[in-house]
Amino acid sequence: GSGMAAEGDVELELETEPNGSGGGSDGAGGGAAEKPRKHDSGAADLERVTDYAEEKEIQSSNLETAMSVIGDRRSREQKAKQEREKELAKVTIKKEDLELIMTEMEISRAAAERSLREHMGNVVEALITLTN
């Protein structure tokens, strides 16, 4: 007979459980029903914020790219100029040609030398360019 008593206890527990949890879930259910609406609007706002942030990031990265492109171009031009200066420095010029240009054109030694070098030491061409 004791086995029957135990079974009875189990049955009792089963009966009481649905009622107890049923009352609890009802209250929770009411709360849950209201929640999704609030949550959705929050998510939508969040999405808008992240979209905005992403757009700003894209804009700033475009700017950075543009700046680095400009920087590259500048350094390339700088390099080209340096190469040109080196080439010009190799040109042999005569001191008398230099002095001739300085007197003729009444320009500084540096300017005279520069124009003479640019014309590969050809004093006539340098003078022609300077007079034009």
From TrEMBL:
Residues 20-32 have a biased composition (Gly residues). Residues 34-45 have a biased composition (Basic and acidic residues). GO terms for biological process: negative regulation of apoptotic process; protein stabilization. Residues 1-45 are annotated as: Disordered. Residues 91-131 form the Nascent polypeptide-associated complex subunit alpha-like UBA domain. Pfam families: UBA_HYPK. Coiled coil: none annotated. InterPro entries: Huntingtin-int_K, HYPK_UBA, NAC-like_UBA. This is HYPK protein. It comes from Cephalopterus ornatus (Amazonian umbrellabird).
